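Appendix B.2, paired examples.
Example (i):
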Amino acid sequence: MGTTVTHHATAVPELLDKSPAPRPGPPGADPAGRTAARRRGRRESLAGYLFMSPWIAGFLLLTAGPMVASLYFAFTDYNLFDTPKWIGWKNFTDMFADPRWRTSVEVTLWYVVVGTPLKLAAALAVALLLNQKRRGQAFYRAAFYAPSLIGASVSIAIVWKAIFSDDAIVDRTQRALFGVDVGGWTGDPDWIIYSLVALTVWQFGAPMVIFLAGLKQVPRELYEAAEVDGAGTWRRFWNITLPMISPVLFFNVLLETIHSFQIFGSAYILGGAGGTCGPADGTLVYTCYLYVQGFENSRMGFASAMAWMLLLAVGLVTAVLFWSQRRWVHYEEAAR
């Protein structure tokens, strides 16, 4: 009897020790494997940063660095030759008290408010025409887009100035058809801004292509259903076309508004350069006056302050546009 109890007592630990052996974990649980994976990840990250290094260096040296420097110069008296002297907010107070600065703001706002809608209207009108199936459509698209390929180049601005100068083709046509003689648009302070707007509207190719791409995405079934219900051309455009291309319209409005604030080359050439920017400052846009102050008057601190004010103004306008899009931009995902 005692032998039996002893046998069972010694057997219990043996049974307890026969627990299943631990299973091997997944490969990632291996410390050596995790270390190798981290090394591979670091090598891949290093390779990615090496490929990005030219862009990073360019951004730091040509964009971020100059921006930080200009922010410092905005609070200094700096003429590009002497050591900058800290003057605090004086550049900004002088800016608001400068009558030519206020003129540049007025001219720029007039140009943005008038030129941008006209350019977008022309682009949308031509895009609607090119969206129809006609012979030679590819040729017309290329022809309408060609002026935008040139861009705001100096040569085009010089040619444009010659066209709108005294006794040139526009002046003669205007005098013959309407009996109005202003001595050339570029020589009249009240008309020169219209020549600048005409140059901008003439180069509507880029927004036209974007509008045309948006029009191609509008389902034909919507127009067919509207025609069955008796909707006319204007009602189809207002209730179908505009809502469907509103994201594209918002993109063009945002892009062209920012570009309008940045206009410089064509305004400077049409105005005659030399710090005048047109007769009676007719084309004294903001960037033109910034250039005059910074490089012709050697007031780089004042010009830096103007540049930061322009950045804040463009940022504010952009924020307002993004805020307003909730009211008039219709996205397909939101509708779903």
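Example (ii):
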Amino acid sequence: MHYPVMTERQLAARWKISLKTLRRWRSDNEGPTWHKLFQYVRYHEADILGFERQSAQHWSTILGDGERVPKVDSAAGTA
């Protein structure tokens, strides 16, 4: 059975960020909505998808139509 929740480790892996970053966001009241189930932190998939959609719209607005978020070429280390 699939439950529509993610652990903080699953979300960190999905976004390729550290657990420390997610934990800092929580302490700063940033990032997606999270829930505490007993001693465990969980994120609802709907909240994650909503946050991703909102973030994409935010970057679209900042960069304007037709522009993309710059990608870093890990081999060369430049954008």
